[in-house]
Amino acid sequence: MVQSIKHLLIVTLLLSLMGCATTIDYMVVGTGNHRDNKVHDGIIEFDNKWSAVGGIMTCCWEWATGTQSVYDIPPPKSVYVKWLDYDPRVYYEATVMLSDKLYDLATNLPPYYREGETVNSHPYLIIGFGENGEVVVWISNSTRDGNIKGRVLHEVGRGQATIIQPDENGRG
Q1: More exposed terminus of the chain, fewer Cβ within 10 Å: N or C?
Q2: Host domain of residue 92
Q3: What is the CB-side half-sphere exposure of residue 114 using CA atoms within 13 A?
Q4: What is the model's pTM?
Q5: What is the per-residue pLDDT across 57-108, written as a single tens digit (0 to 9) for each?
Q6: Is 30:79 a contact under the CB 8 Å cutoff?
Q7: Is residue 56, in this structure, part of any structural domain at all?
């Protein structure tokens, strides 16, 4: 009897620990900004643990451009971003706290439809850089909304960047 209770407790403990191990198997991280607003995102760092590749972008708000795949990660709780807006030449930085619902949203995204066919997608975490230092983070089932039906776009974070002064070499 005592042995059975010990086994039951061990199994219960293992099951509870497995339930806490929530990782996103596969996700794509992308960036977007308003049309005709050229920016260079230099740093995109999640939870001070892992980064996404930055680069120059000129389009589009709520779209995942310049994407990068990530595997087996816990849902991020925050993202630190640092970027240059070319017109006017302003450097920004911000830390945006992300929703604790990100995991549930990312793992329960519906399929979308393109040309009458169902597309079972994966989550896209999209970081949007606004014209005046706004940062918006979405989770979506598609990179963009063109020629598809059923795209969902959930806002999972929002913040306002601060302007930072360039260093002696003119970099932020």
Answers
A1: N
A2: 23-164
A3: 13
A4: 0.84
A5: 888 899 998 899 999 999 999 999 999 998 888 999 999 999 999 999 999 9
A6: no
A7: yes
